[in-house]
Model the fold of this input.
Amino acid sequence: MASVPGGEVQSAGYVLVVDGGAANRGLISNVLRQAGYETREAPTGEDALTSAREELPRLVVTEVNLPGISGYEVCRELREQFGDDLPIVFVSGERTESYDRVAGLIVGADDYVAMPFAPDELLARVRRLVRRAPQSPPYRLTQREREVLALLSEGLRQAGIARRLSISEKTVAKHIEHILAKLGVHSRAEAIVVAYREPLVRA
Done:
């Protein structure tokens, strides 16, 4: 393996590393930390989704084969909840054929790296995606949360937002819960006031 460049601190936010194997998680995390990235680890897909909901990561690196739900399902769920702005990379030591890579890209990943990998290659791919990703918007709202907030501001109710965005009402409710918490308000009406005042949505 090539030596790991380090030194400068990278963009704000953490990289979420998801793998059922402690050794692989540690390897990837170590490569990223030596390059200045903050990392957090999740051993299962469920843990990864919980971590992302609590605080949106800057980028997600996940294995395909995970205990419980698969990396493909994690990718689909993250895309549904957070939109396309969140960079997602599959790094797999088990699913390394060309059709595996194609499948990963089809379900929504931005990149796919087979193990064993050269640290420089992984870091180059991560840096490219981090640079390309939009900077965190005010209040750290995700793209999907901004869409939900905009529709709330238009007067749509939960069912209408779900139909417009082609997601479930349960998912809409979760987005609204996150929006209220991030804006520091207690009602949808207060959220709309903040949205227009900042402005987070267009009048």
